[in-house]
Design a protein that fits this description.
166 residues, alpha+beta, Beta-Lactamase, 2 domains, six-stranded antiparallel beta sheet, two-stranded parallel sheet, elongated
Length: 166
Amino acid sequence: MIPKSKWLKMPRQSLQVVSRSKLSCQQRRLILPQQVQIIVPTEKVDIAKSLAPYITVFDATGKTIASSAQLNGQIPTIPSGVFDYVRQHGEDRITWQPQPGVRSAVVVTQFQGPNSGFVLAGRSLREVEIREDDILHIVELGWLAMLLVSLLATAIIFKVLWRPSH
């Protein structure tokens, strides 16, 4: 179990990294328990290092049935409050930080049938965070350039207006 998971509501734009159509397709196929092994990839994804998407299937109580996600050699768990929210609203789209430096965009939905439960599909936000940092640096450089232009313009105006009279 991964302690102190941090959950934040995330902007809709950032959630585009998680394929909702893939999740819906997987969710519809979860009718029989043996199908879970077909849906969840056998290849494990280390969510601290990989950018690959991952899927976790939970039973109706929130217990992990199968997962392609791993963190520090264990299957990461999510807070039970997420399941409560999904039971009431059908779906939850959030950012998940199971440990410092590891953030994912995840979608959790509920499936019904003979064996009801939840499906979580997620993907690392590392590339999104790198793009956000790049944009921040561009904005900072633009701000600095405008500051220098303003300083030069002020110096030129000051020099022109404050010429000593002969």
